[in-house]
Design goal:
Radius of gyration: 31 Å
Strand order of the largest sheet: 2-3-4-5-6-7-9-10-12-13-14-15
Largest sheet: 12 strands, antiparallel, barrel
Strand content: over 45%
Structural class: alpha+beta
Order of helices and strands: HHHHHEHEEEEEEEEEEEEEE
Shape: elongated
Number of helices: 6
Number of strands: 15
Oligomer: single chain
Helix content: 25-40%
């Protein structure tokens, strides 16, 4: 059935053709055409308003579902960067220098490992320090930078998404005595996600500042902790409708890492807790909401150290970690799955720690998570460099 505006247009065309010679009729035809155009405009405006209403209703899904996982990954990445930097300063050393090479040669079955190690090191004396500070007592300051990016994919027809989250941290700390450090850090974060529940997008850029510290509790255990504050500029969209809003986030984390050595092998059990809290402003596409996340973890890391000379060493390592994640989004949408999460996951990781000089180290790492969660996968790669002076 034809619409009213179509009928108006047809009638106007017929009348204009039949009475084209009449000025009065021509004016009437023009008036009818204008009325038809106005009616079409009102119809288009109503359609646009309807599309906007749908976008407003569904656009809020992106911040509700994407933000909690992004908060968990962001806090984990920053906490791991801090923990690596602290442990690089305070962890009990594996046997170094002559002693380390004697152990390595012994494991390789060399007949006289002590003599060969002594010759290989050019007559160097044994170095056995229990703590890293023993070997670098004069190096009070440590500057480090860490860059990490995670790629996430959640397969869900209603609340799925895929994208990336990247963090860059820059830290500076100082030794407090022989067994403690205290420092400050700057943090940058960027993320970009596409949603599978419509042509949706969600991206954010954030800057933060924080403090961190750590202490060697004994000859085997090192504890570290951090607190970070961040401000974010966020953008979300659905189709042609986009909106921006601000948010503020607090992040805190603590870890306890152990160190045991057997020959050139290192065994490091670890437990940790991470927490984050974010307040998001409202926009036309999302309600104001408060999101809280937490993650508890426990795992084991195993490494094998190869001594290159008295200053340099390489340690490939692997780890398996169990993670319990929780979040409370503080907002729900009718007809959509509950965004809150309470799940157990497994993370498999590996990497390389390289001591390239007496005061410079580089570490590379990669991991994959989602091994115990259905329809979810996240892969992470990163690197950290540290310079003591």
């Amino acid at each position: 059935m034809r619409s009213f505006t179509t009928v108006l247009k047809s009638a106007a065309a017929v009348r204009a053709k039949r009475f084209s010679g009449s000025p009065i009729v021509s004016r009437i035809a023009v008036a009818l055409g204008v009325a038809a155009a106005m009616a079409a405009g009102f119809a288009a405006s109503a359609a646009a308003q309807q599309q906007l209403a749908v976008a407003v209703k569904r656009g809020s899904v992106a911040p509700i579902y994407v933000t909690p996982q992004a908060m968990i990954d962001s806090t984990r990445q920053t906490a791991e960067a801090v923990s690596n930097a602290v442990n690089d300063r305070l962890a009990p050393d594996a046997p170094t220098g002559l002693n380390a090479m004697v152990l390595q040669y012994s494991a390789e079955g060399i007949a006289d490992p002590a003599a060969d190690a002594f010759t290989a090191l050019g007559g160097a004396s044994a170095v056995t320090g229990e703590f890293a500070s023993t070997n670098q007592a004069a190096l009070l300051w440590n500057m480090w930078t860490d860059a990490t990016v995670a790629f996430a994919d959640r397969d869900n027809p209603v609340a799925g998404y895929d994208g990336y989250l990247a963090t860059v941290s820059l830290g500076l700390d100082r030794k407090i005595g022989d067994r403690s450090v205290l420092g400050v850090l700057l943090n940058f974060e960027a993320s970009d996600f596409d949603t599978t529940f419509g042509p949706g997008t969600f991206d954010s850029t954030g800057y933060g500042i924080g403090v961190y510290g750590g202490t060697a509790l004994s000859d085997h255990w090192v504890a570290d902790a951090m607190v970070v504050w961040k401000h974010f500029d966020n953008d979300t969209g659905l189709g042609l409708v986009t909106a921006g809003f601000d948010s503020e986030r607090w992040q805190a984390a603590g870890n306890l890492t152990g160190y045991w050595y057997r020959d050139a092998w290192r065994y490091s059990p670890a437990v940790g807790i991470a927490w984050s809290h974010e307040d998001q402003d409202a926009s036309i596409l999302n309600p104001a909401q408060t999101i809280a996340t937490a993650m508890a973890s426990a795992g084991l890391e195993v490494g094998y150290t190869t001594i290159l000379d008295d200053m340099r060493s390489l340690e490939p390592w692997a780890s398996l970690t169990a993670e319990w994640t929780f979040h409370d989004s503080g907002a729900t949408l009718p007809g959509f799955p509950d965004p809150d999460l309470n799940e157990l996951d497994l993370r498999l990781a590996g990497g390389l720690n390289a001591m390239l000089a007496e005061n410079f180290s580089l570490s590379l790492h990669a991991d994959v998570a989602g091994l115990a969660r259905s329809n979810f996968l996240i892969a992470t790669i990163g690197a950290q460099a540290a310079l003591q002076f």
